[in-house]
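[Automated response] Your request has been received and processed.

Submitted sequence:
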Amino acid sequence: MQTIRHLVELRRVLLALRAGGARIALVPTMGALHAGHIALVEAAKLVADHVVASIFVNPRQFGAGEDLARYPRREAADARLLAEAGCAVLWAPGADEMYPAGFATNIAVAGVSEGLDGVARPGHFDGVATVVAKLFNQVRPDTALFGEKDFQQLAVIRRLVLDLDLEVEIIGVPTQRDDDGLALSSRNAYLMPEDRARAVALPRALGDAARDIAKGAAPQVACSAAQAVLLAAGFDRVDYVALVDAETLAPATDAGRPRRLLAAAHIGGTRLIDNIAVEG
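Generated structure:
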């Protein structure tokens, strides 16, 4: 695996990899890799000849008071994992390479970015859309893979690609979970053992609420009950528990369309998100 930090070199290497019509898949990450990221790489190898993974802790998607400074950075260990998983290239630019002096462009995706985390983290999805658009232009992948754990992010990226006529196929990969059901996340490393034990209430509350809604319970009642369960389990604050249309992320009003139950909650100073499909 080649580790590349400058765009000129990246384009030279990718030109050689594309020889003969080979397909390129991109797996964007912010590092601190876990089994969920490796699942993206494994899925990418099924649809492309070469996999490019990126590691860039994007300052533009962190708000004031968020965890940019303490976000885990362990590039050497991450690089070993990616090499073992079969990546061809690690694209690891510095902030000056990604956002050179005078950088003045911001991409905002309306609609799908405006509720949920868009309310709790103002400006976050502008940062996501801007860096993802840059990564797509830098790598020019045939396909890019994102985890469904960050479901609103995935919806924002799908909208970005559709609206800007970008020639990249977006593949969502199911959320990877620990044995007790907690969604894998780089931020799980922040949890103290007692908070980690309590955090499993999040997927369990979502599962219970999803089953109740599928059986006919009023979504507002089921979501309120899930919030109460989380607070009783030791979560400090719940940003939201919401049933949304899986495509538009607007409040779900049609049981005949795919629906998704999304939640964000804080425990021990760490903000966790999760989501689950709602059947029926």
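Summary generated for your ticket: The first strand starts at residue 2 and ends at 4. The chain has a mean pLDDT of 97.
If you did not submit this request, please reply to this message.
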